[in-house]
């Protein structure tokens, strides 16, 4: 029997998280840094977990105890990660799309940034998750056309350790390609 010398498709590395307005064009797979309105949310701590949930209803008949068919009932996509860089701009982006306001330093007063803590609505974004590809030095990208940040954001400040912001993005059905959440694109070969 011939032995294969091709390496296994092991993917090792972190995920990078970018967000943009819904409808923003996704970057080419070989583009080092996404252009346009893509905002890098910063370094993450721990895993970037992409969960594909498919709930099925098993169908059986009286004539057989065995499964005859399954019907898709719900389909969900959740992207969970923790931001290690907690600058006020990124914090505002995940907390209901609140824009940070800069106040310049003046005579006798320090300059500062503020964001309002005002949970009013759940804005929608496009989300791009970039990881290493199993092929060469390319990327694999998860391109979610539309979704929103959900769940709780509890920041724990601990002496001697970093404070991270746990985030959870819930993908929604694409308005440009109904019936999908988006695409998974994997680098295959260098451009000629």
Task: Tell me what you see in this structure.
It is a single chain. With 192 residues, the protein is mainly beta. The chain has a single domain (16-101, 114-186), classed as Pnp Oxidase, Chain A (Roll), CATH 2.30.110. The protein contains one helix and ten strands, in the order ββββαββββββ. The strands form two sheets. Strands 1, 2, 3, 4, 7, 8, 9 and 10 form an eight-stranded antiparallel β-sheet that branches. A two-stranded antiparallel ribbon has the order 5-6. A hairpin with an 8-residue loop joins β5 and β6. The chain is globular and about 85 Å long. The model is unreliable at 1-5 (pLDDT under 50).
List the helices and strands and how they pair.
Elements (H helix, E strand, L loop, with lengths): L15 E5 L18 E2 L3 E18 L2 E20 L4 H7 L6 E3 L8 E3 L10 E8 L6 E12 L14 E7 L10 E5 L6
Give a quick account of the main beta sheet: strands, pairing sense, barrel closure.
8 strands, antiparallel
| Terminal CA distance | 35 Å
Estimated helix fraction: under 10%
Q: Which outline best applies? A: globular
The radius of gyration computed from the alpha-carbon positions, rounded to a whole number of angstroms, is 21 Å
Q: Might you state the CATH topology name?
A: Pnp Oxidase, Chain A
Instruction: Using the 3D structure, state the CATH architecture.
Output: Roll
- Please state the structural category: mainly beta
What is the mean predicted local confidence, pLDDT?
A: 85
Number of domains: 1
Q: Briefly, what CATH class?
A: Mainly Beta
- Proportion of strand residues: 35-45%
> Number of DSSP helices?
1
Number of strands: 10
SSE ordering: EEEEHEEEEEE
pLDDT < 50 stretches: 1-5
